[in-house]
Design goal:
It holds the Pfam family 4HBT. This protein is an alpha+beta fold and 157 residues long. It has four helices and six strands. The protein folds into two domains: 40 residues, no CATH class; 112 residues, Hotdog Thioesterase (Thiol Ester Dehydrase, Chain A, Roll). Strand 5 and strand 6 form a beta hairpin.
């Protein structure tokens, strides 16, 4: 494996080297923040816009592209699910957490450009079930995907 990594570093394409760089970033972020590897690959770092809205702004990387050069639909679904999950989980007390029970995505246009913005808000907040919505925008502020999700609130054991 080390020889193959050396070969990619020395002779690999720019895209291959970017993927290796993202993998290293993902490992570092996992070690430092205990986050999922996917969070590191996507560069997920969020912020509250207000008490009901959470946002990610991320660079669009080669990891996110489908074979047509646009953002892969699975990446858009992951961004929407992640931003909604981050909002609900950051709003819960430490003894509770939430997980996705249902996710619906509408793909509106191809994702292209230099960066993406994902935002989530609450639609309904019950004791056990929370319904949320999220959208992903390109760097021209065009909505490229929209989704809704239902999350169940659970107690930590």
């Amino acid at each position: 494996m080390i020889e193959e990594l050396k070969n990619i570093c020395e002779e690999g394409s720019e895209e291959e080297q970017q993927i290796l760089e993202l993998a290293l970033k993902s490992i570092r972020q996992r070690r430092e923040r205990k986050s999922a590897f996917l969070s590191g690959f996507l560069g997920l770092q969020g912020e509250f816009v207000d008490e009901r809205t959470y946002r990610f702004e991320i660079p669009l990387t080669v990891f996110m592209h489908n074979s047509g050069g646009a953002v892969h639909g699975g990446i858009l679904a992951t961004l929407i699910d992640s931003v909604m999950g981050s909002l609900i989980n950051r709003s819960l007390p430490p003894e509770e957490y939430a997980v996705t029970t249902e996710l619906k995505i509408n793909y509106l246009r191809p994702g292209k450009g230099e960066k993406l913005r994902a935002e989530a808000t609450f639609l309904h907040r019950g004791q056990t079930l929370v319904v949320m919505e999220g959208s992903v925008y390109d760097d021209r502020n065009k909505r490229i995907a929209h989704g809704t999700g239902t999350f169940i609130v659970l107690k930590r054991s």
